[in-house]
Specification:
By secondary structure, the chain is an alpha+beta fold. The chain contains 7 helices and 4 strands, in the order H-E-H-H-H-E-E-H-E-H-H. It has a 4-stranded mixed sheet. Helix 3 packs antiparallel against helix 4.
């Protein structure tokens, strides 16, 4: 492991060797364990998302999310921004950022690790299909990262995939079908409790 090159990578570019080198274990958790509640709430503020097509939507925010969903699921070749655009619109609509919260949405932002002993919340998007993550950031992990060393203590990453009706087609369907959309939006609603 001493011969590995230390470089930052996108979450999708990590391999099992990277996880082993950095002593990271990813543990998949069910809904009740990950969110600490068995039944997840549906977001009440955007009922138009219950409609299947964009042309039936009245609420502009709901229209934008579903329109970006369509653009993301059928991207222009070589254009990677569709997922970022979709995610920003969705997080804004779901209330993850606002003036009242004092929180903004930024894409491709470097986040310094200054706070330890807290859970860092993360969402990885594959098209319009999210994977939710919780990482307990320890002082040892921060020091190892700062020194460019491999941490001796195991870092456990809790992971949750929304329980969509057709799990095998999770990535190809994303939020397009209404039944998937209900499940995914419920996870986004419940996940806000981990975002400070």
């Amino acid at each position: 492991m001493a011969n590995l090159i230390h470089s930052s990578k996108s979450g999708h570019d990590w391999t099992i060797n990277d996880l082993m080198a950095y002593n990271i274990s990813i543990v998949q958790q069910n809904t009740a364990t990950f969110f600490s509640q068995a039944a997840l709430p549906l977001p009440a503020q955007h009922p138009d998302l219950n409609r299947l097509t964009v042309d039936k939507m009245v609420d502009n925010n709901s229209y934008q999310v579903v329109r970006y969903t369509d653009l993301t699921m059928d991207p222009v070749p070589g254009e990677e921004s569709a997922v970022d655009d979709f995610t920003m619109q969705l997080l804004h609509m779901m209330g993850y950022a606002s003036r009242a919260l004092g929180r903004d949405l930024c894409s491709r932002k470097d986040i310094p690790l200054f706070i330890y002993g807290e859970v860092m919340a993360g969402i990885m998007m594959t098209g319009t299909s999210p994977t939710f993550l919780k990482i307990l950031v320890t002082l040892e992990l921060i020091k190892a990262i700062q020194r460019g060393e491999y941490p001796a203590t195991l870092t456990i990453v809790a992971m949750h995939h929304p329980n969509v009706p057709r799990p095998v087609r999770r990535h190809s369907e994303g939020m397009c079908p209404v039944d998937n959309r209900h499940c995914i939006l419920s996870c986004f609603e419940a996940f806000r409790q981990f975002v400070n």
